[in-house]
Design goal:
The structure is a homodimer. By secondary structure, chain A is of the alpha+beta class. Chain A has 9 helices and 14 strands. In chain A, the strands form 3 sheets. Chain A has a 7-stranded mixed β-sheet. The interface between A and B is large, with 67 and 67 residues. Strand 1 of chain A pairs antiparallel with strand 2 of chain B, so a sheet runs across the interface.
Chain lengths: 322, 322
Amino acid sequence: MSRKLTESIFLPALKNPALDALHDGAILSLPPGRVAFTTDSYVIDPIFFPGGDIGSLAVHGTVNDLAMCGARPLHLSAGFIIEEGLPLADLRRIVASMAQAAAVAGVTVVTGDTKVVDRGKGDQIFINTAGIGVVPEGIEISPTRARPGDVVLVSGEIAVHGIAILSVRQGLQFETELRSDSASLHDLVGAALDVAGTHLHVLRDPTRGGVASALNEIAASANVSIELEERSIPVNEAVQGACELLGFDPLYVANEGKCLAIVAPSHAKAVLEAWRRHPLGRDAAIIGQVREEPRGRLVLHTRIGARRVVDMLSGEQLPRIC
Amino acid sequence: MSRKLTESIFLPALKNPALDALHDGAILSLPPGRVAFTTDSYVIDPIFFPGGDIGSLAVHGTVNDLAMCGARPLHLSAGFIIEEGLPLADLRRIVASMAQAAAVAGVTVVTGDTKVVDRGKGDQIFINTAGIGVVPEGIEISPTRARPGDVVLVSGEIAVHGIAILSVRQGLQFETELRSDSASLHDLVGAALDVAGTHLHVLRDPTRGGVASALNEIAASANVSIELEERSIPVNEAVQGACELLGFDPLYVANEGKCLAIVAPSHAKAVLEAWRRHPLGRDAAIIGQVREEPRGRLVLHTRIGARRVVDMLSGEQLPRIC
């Protein structure tokens, strides 16, 4: 059955010479540079949602993890765990969506695997994608590089993906449909690297756990403090409303098409402008700054002038959001 | 919860600088050569079995896929999909077993991901490993390189993994316990490459679908015929007995620590001798030959002197065997 799926669905949709060889693995000639390697499993529920599906998400997510290392994403692997009974039409639609997302991101799916599990031993479909990319000479992106004085940017409105998924799950209706922001960010990253080069210190896509978790992790890695201005953080009205209704803090809600950057102050404005010229960065904003103290902490200046420490989220706010 | 698992279980067991960086991906400096890239998801049931567990299997399987490309295995990613309720002690044991298998194979787990799904939406634990390795200059292993006159070797007794797993599932008792042959084959492959170099044309580990499926695929890829001598194929007595009892053909039963090689006739004996000197190849044997006709077919000379075409297996003989 795996072989039939491979021949009838995966190969035709994802066609490329490495995959077509049907070897145990793909043999690749990579451009020079350090190799970035990353993996993510996608278990999102529902598998189809406004703005994407588990297939496009599995491509975007892994492309973005590579981009956040400063790498040019090149090749993906795809491992499918399919629950018996998944309609073939759904699988075809998911694979077509992966193929399209891969084409847009300029990556090829070069190797794959399919396992089928009994009904009740999975949930329709889980997808793992691993990715490899190449980090050009001279690029040095790492969470440890955040340093006091650096400026924190976000590429657009936060919390959209999480609220879009939750709306579908809960059957919530809004005046305008909320669509996931799921997208490949490599080009947006490229635009920032073009103008800032080594002055671009940290990149991170704030997926599970949202902006607050991502910045907490960076503050801990670099042993610095990060200060956010609440009023500068772009949140769209529908998302804000949904968050209030549901009791969520948008800072903790997942994004799938937004990027945080921590940049030397000399180059922050150049990155902001480059992003605002980019279709995925039109709502980019400077949202905060890196400071020395309190080390390892994320601090929020609230709209009403208070300062509060924003902790890591404990417990999962939104399960199976990616 | 994922973060807690990462900090309390994954990082301590799998410790290495790339993983410790806790970045979105690992940044690696690879030795020169083409890069091999492969992935497999492991959904084996039961997750603990005689001779291994899902953790060691997930390392061996992906290390072997790299080795079958002629690559030196270097780095793995690990994606865990954990069903709520999996005992932490089981997870610890699985991760420890991955760590040990990785150490033996000389590979590091450099990047990972954990997802937790509700009870009843998974089955204890699924693991995806992707792997990267480097193919040394001058090595050219590919299923398309099988050519008429080449000799077919197997590194030892076949069908052991599949029958071991099935015995546990069915509660069968044998005089001697059947243990899976799950093992990393990169060193055995190295021994063959050392003596045969470019005269080693094809490598394949006959996992799901067994020796018959692997050789059928190779015959199709290279557009040649492969002829096997049934009497030369090493099958241990207990496995043979179990196959008869259960109505399985050992040619279709999964292996996890055996390797097929297709070698130029000038170097077949050298590979056989090198393998027999290796602890994982003591029962290695020459089991057949590549011919021109009938193209794309696997043909078996049976013990009683008959010739029969051995087709691809249709339908899954043993589900969730890896």
